[in-house]
Amino acid sequence: MDTTNKYNQNGTDTAQTGTPTTGTETMPTALGGLGKMLVFYIVLNRAFYLQVAGIFLTIILLATVPNCLLSDSAGYGYTTGLASVIGSVAAIYFSTCGAFIVSDLSHRHQRVAIFMLPASKMEKFLARYVHLMVLVPLAAFVGIGVGDILQMILSKATIGDYNSIIATCAGYMSFAGVEGPLNVIDPLVALIYFNSLFLAVGAIFRRHAWLKSNIFIFMGMIVLLIVAAFLMKSLLDMIYGYNGYEIELLASTPRSIVLCAISIVLAAFNYWFGYHIYSRMQVAANRWYNF
What we know:
Number of strands: 0
Distance between the termini: 23 Å
Shape: flat
Oligomer: single chain
Largest sheet: none
Helix content: 55-70%
Number of helices: 9
Low-confidence stretches: 3-30
């Protein structure tokens, strides 16, 4: 998800002294460690940001050209389809991108380059998180925005009508909010929880963290659901006897409030656990995990 394997090609000197030269040393001290780390990630990953923007721009144009050639009206069909695809990709990315929190520390020379930068472990951790949660999505949004403008121009020129993909996405979001705040809060809390869970699990694995995190979380959730269902049934059978009870769930609003509260507490623990592992990573380590 980044280009940190190209330190030497981007001006970082990890020669025999192991001291990186990234340009952050000459920045004003008022910028702070976090600011220096953000500049470091922006400079280091500028080509990657352009690639992300280019991918989304290309996807939109590839979907627009056939529509302009084969359709006589700019109906909501393809813009709705593109909006759904973009929304699904965004949901998956924001839920799982935490697994990439240490993917720029997979190799020794990467750890040397980053750990030697003039910033605390907390500032490096936060900068990496901002890179994943803000800078990469911002690059994608730029590509989507440019692609949306170009597809509207092409549609207007060839068909005489156009629809906006971004406006369609915004319409979906506003419609969800009209039906009640919980329709927005519940998915948002779920996204935060899974983001924190993937960050905590991803921080454990040194390489291929995203794939390993998906497998680990999927298998872990299956085991937990089976164990929880077995224990719950055994407890109820012990108290009320076999078939001597009927399970009733809480109403939707109280249930959502309870689940959101539990999810927020667990998310806070996951973020702490992920940073706890990150802050204790060492340059010299040959294990496949980060404990």
